[in-house]
Design brief:
With 767 residues, this protein is an alpha/beta fold. Helix 13 packs across helix 29.
Length: 767
Amino acid sequence: MKTNNTSTFTHEQQQVIQHNIATHAKVVAVAGAGKTTTLIARIEFLLQQGVPIQKIGVFMFNKSAQEEFLQRLTCYLNERSYHQTPHVMTFHSFGLKLCRRMEQANLLSSADLITDDFSLVRLIREGMQQLVKKGKKVSLMDEKEWLEDALMFIDHVKAAAEDAHLVYKKSSFNSDRDFFPDLYNAIEGIRKRRNQRFFSDLTLDPLAAIEQDDLAEPILIQGLVPDYDYLLIDEFQDINPCQYRLLKALYKHSKWMIVGDVQQCIYEWRGANPHIMSTEFDEDFHQSDTTNNNVSSYALSQSFRFGHQVGLMASNTIDRNNAENLVIGTGNTTAFSFAKSEKAGQALLTELKQWVTQGERLDDVAVLVRLYSDMVPVQLALMHKNIPYHLHGDSPLLENRQIRMLLAYLAVMAEGFDNPQRFHSKQDIDYLLTVPSLSLSMNERRQFSQRCMTSPHLIPQLIEELSDQQEGWKGKKLQQRSDWLRSLALYRNDPAGGLQHTIEKLGIYRYFESTSSKDIQAKEKIATCDAFIAYVRGVGGTADDILDQLLALAKSPSEEDHNHGVHLMTIHKSKGLEFGKVIMTGLQEGRFPYYEKEVDLAQIEAERRLFYVGITRAKKRLVFLHQPTKSENKLLLEGRLSNKRVTTAGLSRFVFESCPFIAQQVIEAEVKIEQHQEFENIKMDNPKATQRYLESVSFKSAKKLKINVQEVRTLQVGDRVRHEKFGSGVVLNLDQKGNKMIIIDFDLEGVKTFNPKHTRLLKEMAT
């Protein structure tokens, strides 16, 4: 039998693999740290210590990760003459088996598992009908405007395993969604009466029964769940309270090894709770009076995916989140650059051409965005050049609702009322009637829409007739809509102007703002429209030309080419993936990080984690599809943060925080030192993370280089800062001698004195 050869593992990995089997462990593993290989070796170590294979349970967060891990584990153990493997499962598969066994033991009501999404939508509609019948005041807006929010809310309640009203109070939904808790309770009532379960109920229903009737011990005694002595849980930063409470109830006696990275927790919006890994786990499992229940903490800080460039950028970034760990790049050299053109589309095409010229593949390139609207010019550029691409997790460009709406108005300019073939789809006529809404009930709108689709040439007349039936401003608005649709053909030779004037005349952006539950949703719709109109203006030609071109591009083989194309996705979708070349766009302050009028520290930290995930997907090359201005470039070269309030056109604060040019200077200085050449001192605002990095890497001249990393600028008197507890304030005085204390006058808490070495202060942008 082959044994575990620990010499092939780093010292950090060996510590995790050989962790004391009598205690719990928390492993912080950075992106690309080889955690799968380490976990497999840990399982072998447990087997070598005499742990029966059926006593080990491994939890993964999705089916693809579970299948990949199981395949690698099976091959590894087979090579070493182990003919069985531990249970490797997702939370859903574990919950499904638990539900079935609890049903058989009469501990849980029998229910059918519903796996299609539309059934839940149907259930939501039934719940809404119940609320209306009971007299609940519900704003009867277009279902398309609130349905996605309702689905998200339902998932969040079930992930939190809390009362729906309490979850709503903690949420950031607008007040017009205040019917969500009652809707949730109505849906749950229908679901339970029909004996149905959705995927999220596979952990919620057993947990509710266990906590209500104290069933954990009976379940274990009856063998309704495997009696695991050891749990290994991957991606633990993404666990939600419901999943955590269920495992705690059943396996508090087991020894846990949790693996993850709080800085990669990017799914809070769907219920993940990073505090479970950062604090709760230690509090729940660390009992100082019982040695065997202590929690040992380990770090897998070395990434084999990328080199020092990305490692330094990532470490500088998460240092702003008070992360204790570094991200050490040990892979091949990873190059970094900004765009070579001011126009995003042209810059993208240049980058792709250069990549292919070097003998690389298009399917090893990913374009990552924070917001979908930033993908609009990217898709249009690729479509124009017939470059194949695969859009992950979003609708293709010409299926986007805002784009379809604009296409409908283009069709009207191209005299689509007389020639309905001009419409991309006859269903697009509905967008002329619903954005903004005609203020009809759902049944009235459906009937009216059907009449319009049957007789498109009569649409202005039908709307005019409808206006005669309305009083006051509603009738006036409908008359304006009718008149405007009749006049749109005048813009046939100026389609961009026609679209812009349509948006202004009909108040479409105001409609987006009034019907979106969150500010970000309205801004995304507006940005998508703006990006498309900019494309129409840039291409030129008549409305007919634009339509013909877009419809031809939509039929080309470039879109959705899964085998050979560039990957397009949001950063959320990129989690767990890696690519030879990563191109990030949309790096503008106010869009990434996205924030509303008030800058919330927790929100900025969450956005910063997303940026960290994005840059750590790159193996060979990382590109920011932006060109810094002259002043921004100067700040980047000096490793300084912007001290001015930047607009949405300004470069994201995260780019400055990552210090890409400083990372390049450090790497270049190392080469010069090895070659006994002179190099200039490296200066930056906050050298702490860079200094720690240099102390940890294998640079031969790390010590010599470290002393040349100097702090060029700290806080100054008059700077505005934010403290996590005391809020915003202004620096009154800086003691440059002795203890170097800092005195701050907070807006709400008054004057306080701090030692800056032990205080985390976030410099605010000046207004």
